[in-house]
Amino acid sequence: MNQLWLTAKLDIVESLRARWFQVYTLVFGGIVALLFLFGLTESRVLGFIGLSRLLVTYIQLTMAILPIFVLITTVRSVAGDREAGVYEYLLSLPVSLAAWFWGKILGRYIVIFLPVFGAMVLAVLIALVRGIEVPWGMFTYYTALLAVMAACFLGIGMLISALARSTDMAQGAAFVVWLTLLLFLDLILLGVMIQGKVSPEVAVTVALANPLQVFRTAALALFDPQLIVLGPSAYVILDLFGVTGYKVFALVYPTVVGVAAATLGYQLFRRGDLP
Amino acid sequence: MICFSNVSKSFRKTRVLDDISLEIGLSERVALIGSNGAGKTTLIRCLLGEYTFDGQVTIAGRDPRQERTAVLGTIGFVPQLPPPLKMPVAQLIDFSAALCGTDPANIHQLAQRLGLDLEPILTRPFVKLSGGMKQKLLIAIALGRDAKVLVMDEPAANLDPEARKIFFELLAERQEDVTMLISSHRLNEVSALVNRVIEMDMGKVVLDDRVADDVSLSGKFSCRISIKRNEAAFAKAMLAWNFSDLGNGLEWEGDVPGPDRLRFMGMTSRYVALISDFSLEEVMSPAEPGTVSPADGADGAAN
Prior knowledge:
Radius of gyration of chain B: 20 Å
CATH topology of the largest domain in chain B: Rossmann fold
Largest interface: A-B, 28 and 31 residues
Number of domains of chain B: 2
Number of helices of chain B: 9
Mean pLDDT of chain A: 84
Largest sheet of chain B: 6 strands, mixed
Low-confidence stretches of chain A: none
Low-confidence stretches of chain B: 287-303
Helix content of chain A: over 70%
Radius of gyration of chain A: 20 Å
CATH class of the largest domain in chain B: Alpha Beta
Distance between the termini of chain A: 23 Å
Shape of chain A: globular
CATH superfamily of the largest domain in chain B: P-loop containing nucleotide triphosphate hydrolases
Order of helices and strands of chain A: HHHHHHHHHHH
Oligomer: heterodimer
Helix content of chain B: 25-40%
Structural class of chain B: alpha/beta
Strand order of the largest sheet of chain B: 5-6-7-3-8-9
Strand content of chain B: 25-35%
Largest sheet of chain A: none
Number of domains of chain A: 1
C-alpha cells in the first residue's frame, strides 16, 4: 500500500508541474467562469433555470472535452515517460509492478478529476454567494457521472499506453478510439437507421455499449426524464431500465469498462517489456 | 552472484541478445563494453527485470522479474542518460529512499561527499539540474542503499576530476562485498575501475577477460609537471585537476587518483609539445583496504 501511494504521489507531483495540467485546469475553471459571465443562470431551457441550467450546459461541454483530454494526456504522459527513459530508471527501484501501475492510475485519477470537480464546486460557491438555489441532487449525480467518466477514459487510456510502444502511436490510437466512440453517438446511429442499414435493436445496443452515449443519455435524462429528444429509442431504454435504472446503469457500466480496460492494460504491462 | 543462462532477446525480427551465458561473482568489477547496438543496455535491462527474454537471469539465486522488490532492493542503478523527471530533488530522494528502505540522510551525506550541496536545490525540479549534478545525485541514490550489485552506465562521464576521485573512493569502500557492472562504449573510460572486461558485439559476448591492476581504487599518484612557457589552457586544465602552481604557471604539482591516471595522461598528452618534464609516482598509503591483487590467471592486462 505504501508503494502504491508513493507512486500515486509521484504522478500527482509530476502532473501538477506539467503544462497540460495547467491548460486542463484553466479550461474547466474557465468554462464555469464564462457560463456565469454570460448570464447562463438567468436563461431558460426546458424549464431549467439557475444553477441547474448551468450544470446541464457544463456537463454537456465536459462530455465533449474530458474524454479526449484524458485519453491524449494519459497516453502522452505514460508513453512519453517510457520513451524518455523515466521507466528505465524508476522501474529499477524496488517497486512492485502492481503498485506502480495502479499507483499511477490513482495519482492520475486524482489529477484529472479534481479540476473538473473543482469547477463544479466553484459554480456552487458562486451560486451560494449570489443567492441562487443549488440543486444538490443534480449536483451529486453529475459529480458521480463525471467521476465515472474520468475513470472510464483513464482506464482506456492506460490500456492504449500499455499496448502502444511509442508516443505517436499511442496518441494516434487514442484519437481513433475517441473518434470511433463519437461516430457511434445517437445522431449518427439514427441516420444509419433511417437509411435502413441497421435494425433499431442493433442501433440501440451499439448506443448503449458506447460509454460516450451512455453519459450523454444519462445527462439528458436529468432534465428530460422521458428522453423525448432521443425519439423512439427512448422507449427501448426506458422499458429496459426505467429512469432510475438507467441512471444506475450509466454509473456502473462505464466503471466496469474503465476497470476492465485498466486490468487488461495491467496484464499486458506486467507481461511485456517495461521501458 | 549474477548468472545469465542462455539469455536471448529479440525485438520483432532483430536478435539483440544471442544466447548469452555469464557468471559474475561477488566483488567482481566488470566492464561491459561494446559499440552502439552491441546489446549492453538490453543485457542490463534483462538484469534489472525490465525486459522479458528467453533463458534465465538470477541475482543471488533470485529472479529479478518474479521477485522484483526483494531483488531490486539490493541493486543500485545509475543510468547513462538521467531521466527527465519534473519532480523536485527532495521528492526523488524521499521516493527512492522510501522504496529502498534507507534513510534519506545517507543520500544527502553521499551527495555532499561528491561535492553536491543538496540544500539549495531540494525544491528544484530534477530535470533542471546540470548534467554533473544529476549524475552525482543518481550516484548518491544508488550508493545510498545497502546494494549488493551496482549497475552503472558510464557513471563518471559527467563528473569533474574531484568528484571522480571521490566516486572511486566510494566504490573502493564497497568493493569487497559488492558486485559491479559498469557499461561503457570504450574500455579506457572504465578500465581503471574494473578487474574483468566483457565485450559484446551483435548480441554476443566476444571477449571475457581478467584485468591485472596493481593500483587500488583508492590509490593515488603524486605528479609534477614542468612546461616550457605559460599557457592559459594548460593552467585551466591543471586547476581543474586541483593542481597547485609552483611558480608563474611553469611548474605544477598535484595528486592524481589511481583509477583516473589513464584519463589524466590522456589529458596531458594534448600538451605534449609544451611539457619539458613529467613525473608520476605512486603514493603508498599505510592502509590499503581496497588494493586489488593481480587477477587470478590473468592473461590480458588492460592497463
